[in-house]
Fold HTH lacI-type domain-containing protein.
Amino acid sequence: MKKLTIKDIAKLAGVSFKTVSRVINNEDNVKEETKEKVKKILLEQNFSVNYNAKRLASSRTRQIGVITNTKSNELSKNYIILHHILTFAKMKDYTIIVHESLDKVKRNNLGKIDKGFYEGIIFLNPKKMEDIEETVRDKLPVVMSGISEKYVCVGTDQYESGYIATMALIKKGCKDIAVILDDPDTTTNKEKVRGYADALKSVGYMINDENIHYNYRTSFDVEALITKKYLKDSLYDGVLIGSDVLGLGAVRAINKLKIPCPMNFKFITFGNTFICNETYPSMSSIKQNFESIAKNLVDKIVELIENKDKPKSMVIPAEIIERESTI
């Protein structure tokens, strides 16, 4: 049986070749009624686009590199964003090539990032701005999650996140507030700590460097710290915890040691993933719209690749969702 072409589909639908092409490419400028009619015929005829041939014809790879800057962990913030990036990139007919670090990318014989392989690079929560600078020097379009004045970025305002989370604990009566984070080198964590410190200063609280904890990579690390502080009768009355996954350590410590929460101990995480509602106590958290971040990262890198115009960065305001760990 002869394979149908776009022209054949257009004839069956009674529309132009261009209209069918727009429907296939998910473009907006087609009437909803026409779009549904064309989609119905595409499904009935089991029509599919040969994207490999399409790419060869255009001499483009339609491949975007994503640098995750973290080990594989399906519950980590970067991997949640990556999951959504894969979906949105597919909708725009782009393939995502995932690397844990810039060291792993494909390079040409001069040691530069291979522009014939990648059309652009997305950095998730970059640890080193030098990596982005290198990519720009190699003349590839770049966007990043997080906040930057220099590069196109999409992200939650982490300074504001740290500030409003700390102020929420202060308003609940907390006076000895700590922050527990994983990587000390990421911009997002540095901004959280800056917001935390400014919130303490704003009410005249002293900043104790010993209350700022870095390199807590697992929930078990967090559980061990809280257990140690509790058994020494020196547990903080409020804690900011860098992610919902790390917050699970606080939940375990509370339940094992029967720590009165939120009466004597309150905590807030960052992320607001589904985990927050599945624990006891449920976790108050700073909301970060990972799906929106992913969609806008893809939109902006594609805009840079296809239009060469520099799109505007997008900063998503921080918002606290309070649950049993603080109320």
